[in-house]
């Protein structure tokens, strides 16, 4: 049996590169040779035992690669095509997908399960490997234009798609005032997304000076540090009474609550964070339910059309995510990368991992 | 000085019909002789001291009447015209109104205040009176078609406009499954609204058998009593995995949480309730923030165009709210009406009050 | 080789039931034994040579049946399941489908072709046959609830899905005034759709008294005959200045132009007709381009989720299309059915054809 | 009687600066001392007799000024405040305004008239004057931030608001391909608008090399000259099968038809042009009505909130319209400005006119 190298999860705190079986493409599937991937905050949650996956699964969900094998039933692709695959791989044919909720793909015949279309490194072997089996390949292989490098597109798979969706689901309109809470990779992409969609004023909030500097580089007009200032009061003052859209990109009570408090009447809180434990919606922050507020949540949009559209933004120089890719590692040294990324060392934002 | 009879609020528990000054129409205003009004749950909150208004204010915000005086600057109306006025009276000219958030009307030059466009019986004298001063009259006087009686339209001013908006803001689409939590007057109108907009399956939830019977009459397919059954489990089963839209029409933690729990992935919780104290969003009910859920809140839409459109629904026999008007009182006996309405006696839903 | 009976198109004016090869399910496909189908106006265009298809193709695109064979890769279905299949069969995985334009399914790798997702009786063998091969079966087989008969659901496949979409794409809102031009099967379903979505006033236009009577039965408030009256003037008067939404359901210059002329400023013309030749947009009817008008066109929405939602509307007694199914024929006598349907004999609206 | 200098229209070809009565603010009105204005293509249509207005009316509809007089009933403003007023002045209180169609403001009590909210230089005295009476002042006076000059904001009143709305009504989304037909001032602003909203690829079409150069400066990726190339074929090729949104900014059959022909299935034609005579929608260009195309038209959005939002875009350096203001004239020399603007001399785009 052919084997490959891959970063395998064993149990809380235990994972590492090992020899694993090569995948084989079934009908409607493809195998890609991974040429670049990265590590996501979710991967940290997994190796820390904060999110459960099956022992033995390969980690990672952000793949760039080259088609190595095409199963039957796939049209329009050739072996050797360079492709980007989204972190979310919708089938396009289930109830959720046909209802326009592709990220929630995964309905069984018996009814919905809210696991969503996130499969790589969650329910299927992931992208931190030499090879990756792509399910529903017809819907998920996005060809990479020749003029784009792997590094230019790898962050589109998850963080850019998620971050931009914060602005999209929030319904940012021309001339809006927008506040973005937390400027990690997702929050920075939310800042970029708000800028791309025509917000007039973007206020970025974080406690890390490096990240705030990057926020300015990515399009924020004003940055605020909650350790230094009353961010809600400042945002209300700067926006003349409250922002049109507040984007939450961390998943904490504090950022959620602040995002709600800085809205103008009729404003929208667009939430990207993954929350744990109880979330409180204070009576006054919620205008007792009669402020015409909206709270919208979004899971990373996937599928090849999404990836293609995001690559067009890179190709036509609307966005440049290169500054977010701060470090590079080989797959064999991925443990080092997890360590650096996990302790936020050396100003790391995202790491490139090359099999 | 001319006087009139009106139901005046004094302090917690103290209110009553008294002689008060007749209003006078200034520029852009009108005075109507009230021919019918009603009592709202909010009025109960006020007289119980749970919501603060200025002592001396006339109560009530749901007026039907006849134009008695027209201030300068009002065109297209005549003395004697029968009109319906919404509970919310937007000016049409402030930042909130021009942003499409008419219910949030009330921005000062200095910035927004979240008081909204609710003025009658809140910041201005209200409708439980012989005469009522209507601000921003050009935007708020809706002529009543001759073939409609006062009783046919009085409930449109607040509860129907609010209840229907639960379905509208929820984005109910053809074929949706909808659950409506609580079947008081607002909830019953949310049930009607979901039916009007083409929901295929409407599940109404309440603990009062009388209200559940009325829910069926108003268009619910199935009624559930949370005292008798696990409503979340039942709704998930009946809807094949969760409803598209859940409408909350009470303002309690339990109904809010149940509404959230019975959504399908990508579903919308449309909240009409006025909440007090903290509201919890349990981690699991919220799918940790990645279920593509939306939570939308709506304050009663007002303005003459809204009232006119709702009257068209009555005129063309799409809706019949008559069964909700269960009792009739004169203005002089309004204390009795408050008592009955407050203790939910005799199967009361809404009371008609005739000055 | 196994054979079956099917209605085969040969050339202009020539078609008939013949022995043809039985289909065989490949990967991702299914074969259904057709238990009920019907004839569409489009089929008439084909046999009259007004729309070109390949000689030898089986006609028809509105199938109800029982699963006879399941190809590999299909999950959640069993042989013997009763299913409804939409006239449009999206793959769910191409650029158009992933962009939310499932009806326009059919992009080649090289770029879009505007053939849309209409395949049955157009580019693939159709439903007027004993057996039918269903492509992209996972996305297109909608199980029929046991309590619904074939006749109750067969019209959902095309005319109801199309007709309702006229109201949906038009954005009909609670309290709207809507005019529907032409009351053939599609127009009647547009009338039903406008009613379902909460229009307050529905004005149906046609020259056929039988169809106008049916329009009233299906929910129209007022019917107008352009031979008897100036419909544009009447509609403007009845709606107080113009309708919010006008639905065109015929495909002629006259109906298109009248639909445009009866709009209020900011109104929407929702067009369902299939036009031939040039279409004129008169300068004045179009308010010179500055009336904030919208013209939207819609091809029949397909896919199993759409079919399931429409069946829910039947199951919960929101709609009853039975009155539209006026005649019944066996597949062997389908030529008679074409003749009757083609000359609009005996008050025919739609015919049931049973293989 | 006090008088002022103003550019008065007499009859076809006859207009000029003359002494006219000073306006006086009535209730709800304001008078501004105009500090900057400009000439619009519509003004040319008027003086050429192609659009009828009443003789004696002052021309012009794009005012920047200083409040000189405030009528009763206006709150939140002071004499001396610098303000921008939109070309369209909605009342905020009529049926059209309360329906969200503010640009169509102008409903009489008897029903709609499609004149829209365009009043300055059309039904009321206009802005090419020393003083201007502003109707519905509470809804239409937008204070100018101190850091912005008159020249930075004067083009927001009409061309920027109109041009941007081409992208907004077209529903431009992140990653879209957009084509903009004609690069006059409105078309250039449509190009800016598409860029602001996140289009990935913008193709600008015009025959004038100067305007195409300006289009690149304003954000177009590719420019095409229909005299040099088959623009429809080129656009289809460049966009991989058709654009998501095509914006028409001229008002001719050719540009309208080309815009329609270059759409991908499901695409939107956003029309800003003012058409004259018949407009043809060729059968094939329209996909026979079943391409899921949308055609949307938009009249310049007005009102103070719109103006404020657009000024925020200037203030935060999202847009810089200065390059479009190519020439400067005094009010006394406005005839020269009309001449230059009318014959498109010296690369003129827009002229600043200073009373």
TrEMBL record, chains A, B, C, D:
Q: Which Pfam families match?
A: ADH_N (PF08240), ADH_zinc_N (PF00107)
Q: Mind telling me which InterPro entries this protein's record contains?
A: ADH-like_C, ADH-like_N, ADH_Zn_CS, ER, GroES-like_sf, NAD(P)-bd_dom_sf
Q: Which UniProt keywords apply?
A: Metal-binding, Oxidoreductase, Zinc
Task: Report the top EC class in one word.
Answer: oxidoreductase
Please name the SMART domains in this protein's record. PKS_ER
Record keyword Zinc present: yes
Known cofactor(s): Zn(2+)
Q: Which residues form the Enoyl reductase (ER) domain?
A: 16-349
Source organism's superkingdom? Bacteria
Molecular-function annotations in GO: alcohol dehydrogenase (NAD+) activity; zinc ion binding
According to the UniProt entry, what is the EC number of this protein?
Answer: 1.1.1.1
Give the family this protein belongs to, as stated in its UniProt record.
Belongs to the zinc-containing alcohol dehydrogenase family.
Protein name in the entry: Alcohol dehydrogenase
Tell me the organism: Nitrospira japonica
């Amino acid at each position: 049996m052919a084997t490959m190298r891959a970063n395998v999860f064993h149990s809380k705190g235990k994972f590492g590169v090992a020899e694993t079986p090569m995948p084989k493409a079934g009908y409607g599937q493809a195998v890609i040779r991974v040429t670049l991937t990265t590590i996501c905050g979710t991967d940290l949650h997994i190796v820390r035992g904060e999110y459960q996956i099956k022992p033995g699964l390969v980690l990672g969900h952000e793949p760039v690669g080259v088609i190595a094998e095409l199963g039957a039933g796939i049209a329009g692709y050739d072996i050797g095509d360079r492709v980007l695959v989204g972190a979310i791989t919708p089938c396009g044919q289930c109830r959720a997908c046909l209802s326009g909720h592709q990220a929630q793909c995964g309905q069984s015949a018996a009814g919905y399960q809210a696991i969503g279309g996130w499969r790589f490194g969650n329910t299927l072997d992931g992208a931190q490997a030499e090879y990756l089996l792509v399910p529903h390949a017809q819907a998920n292989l996005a060809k990479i234009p020749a003029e784009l490098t792997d590094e230019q597109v790898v962050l589109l798979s998850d963080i850019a798609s998620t971050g931009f969706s914060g602005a999209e689901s929030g319904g940012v309109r021309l001339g809006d005032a927008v506040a973005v809470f937390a400027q990690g990779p997702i929050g920075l992409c939310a800042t970029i997304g708000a800028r791309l969609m025509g917000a007039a004023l973007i206020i970025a909030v974080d406690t890390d000076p490096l990240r705030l500097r990057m926020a300015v580089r990515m399009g924020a007009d004003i940055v605020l540090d909650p350790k230094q200032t009353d961010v809600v009061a400042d945002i209300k003052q700067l926006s003349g009474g409250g922002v049109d859209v507040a984007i939450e990109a961390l998943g904490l009570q504090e950022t959620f609550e602040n995002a709600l408090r800085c809205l103008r009447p009729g404003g929208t809180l667009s939430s990207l964070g993954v929350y744990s434990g109880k979330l409180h919606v204070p009576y006054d922050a919620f205008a007792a339910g009669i402020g015409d507020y909206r709270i919208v949540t979004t899971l990373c949009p996937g599928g090849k059309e999404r990836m293609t559209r995001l690559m067009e933004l890179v190709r036509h120089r609307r966005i440049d995510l290169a500054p977010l890719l701060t470090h590079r590692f080989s797959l064999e040294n991925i443990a080092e990368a997890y360590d650096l990324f996990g302790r936020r060392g050396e100003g790391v934002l995202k790491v490139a991992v090359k099999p």
